[in-house]
Amino acid sequence: MAERTLVAAGAAVAGAALTAAAVRRADRRWGEADDPCRPADRLLPAGERTVVETDDGAGLATTVAGEGPPVVLAHCWTGGREVWAPVAHRLIARGHRVVLYDQRGHGSSTVGEAGFSIERLGTDLRCVLEHLDVVDAVLAGHSMGGMAVQSLVAHHPDVVDDRARALVLVSTAAAGLSRGPADAGATRLVASRWVERLLASRVGHALVRGTVGAEVRKRHLELTRDLFVACPPDTRAGCLGAMQVMDLREGVARAGVPVTVLVGTRDRLTPPGHAEELATAVPAAELTTVDDLGHMLPLEAPDEVAEVIAAQGSRAVTPPAPASSPPASPPAR
After folding, report:
1. Strand partners, 53
2. CATH classification at residue 132
3. Total structural domains within the chain
4. In this predicted structure, what is the pLDDT of residue 329?
5. Residues in the chain with pLDDT values less than 70
6. pLDDT score, position 4
7. Residue 9's pLDDT is what?
8. Which residues pair with 168 in a beta bridge?
9. Domain-embedded: residue 108
């Protein structure tokens, strides 16, 4: 997620655009909508639970489940392993070993001495891969998780060469999340207890309506809201500040494995333009759009996301073609 949802939420409340009665009416529709996530999908898969210790002392809570070709799933800002659970269940059923972990400061993971930076998130992913000795894996990241994957490419390309067969970047961006003078205000807002109280209210789940696309499921909003409220204020602010100043375009362009970029056409937080820029930055990257869906694709479209990841896991490994260079000038006569 990004700060725009919360800024919009505050404006909506200030303008009385949302009322308890309106939310109750919407809840009836949202609660009755077909949900691709079955009740069991919302639970983390049964598997081995461990804590990966990073070089700066953070402890990353990790779940490893299933057998087969590995897939590593990195979650979004203010999210947790649970966001990826519906996709993880589908990948396990397809015969994959799935690794899920809470990013530093999120869920059951601690922060560590280095604090928050996008470079640090890439190093954390390296620690997960090395600790679990994951090789020949598809690395998939959603939103800030996609930035962690890109950071791994930018700062640890040798690890990508040794341990990854493909990357899947879901609802994410490589740069361009800064709002300029509004950045400091957005950071203070997301760290405020006022926002927590607002989101924890009876209408709070409606305030994250902008995280999903045309078809709204109430449980998706509730999970997104609950994870945000559970995320410590320092983590929310620290990671947002890191995203605002990042620029991974040059680094991710050096990816030596196939890359797929996936985005919903109604993503308001990292809109399709960010995905297009990212796909353009990476030679031979594939851009896939999902009509009418929003930012929370692992919840909104778990079948489609799992299909894209599994397809990358089964394809033959061929390095992407190098960026084309202009044709040589003919010799002078």
Report:
1. 59
2. 3.40.50.1820
3. 1
4. 39
5. 1-18, 316-333
6. 52
7. 45
8. 140, 260
9. yes
Its sign, for the CA torsion 11, 13, 17, 18, is positive
40 alpha-carbon distance from chain centroid: 21
| pTM of the predicted protein model | 0.89
Residue 285's φ and ψ, nearest 5 degrees, are -65, 145
Going through 95-212 in order, the beta strands assigned E by DSSP cover 97-101, 137-142, 164-170
Instruction: State how far the alpha carbon of 99 is from the alpha carbons of 115, 135, 204, in Å.
Output: 23, 12, 31
**Distance, CA of 205 to CA of 140 (rounded, Å):** 27
For residue 232, tell me if it sits in a domain.
Answer: yes
Predicted pLDDT at 22: 86
Q: Is residue 332 part of a domain?
A: no
Nearest to 310, CA basis, from 138, 163, 164: 138
> Amino acid letter at 308?
V
Q: What are phi and psi of 90, to 5 degrees?
A: -70, -40
Contacts of 141 (CB under 8 A, 6+ apart): 73, 74, 147, 148, 149, 150, 167, 168, 169, 170, 172
Pairwise CA distance, residues 154 & 120, whole Å: 12
The backbone torsions φ and ψ at residue 294, rounded to the nearest 5 degrees and listed phi first, read -105, -145
- Establish if 321 belongs to a structural domain: no
Show the domain range for 18: 3-314
Q: How many Å apart are CA 147 and CA 118, to the nearest integer? A: 7
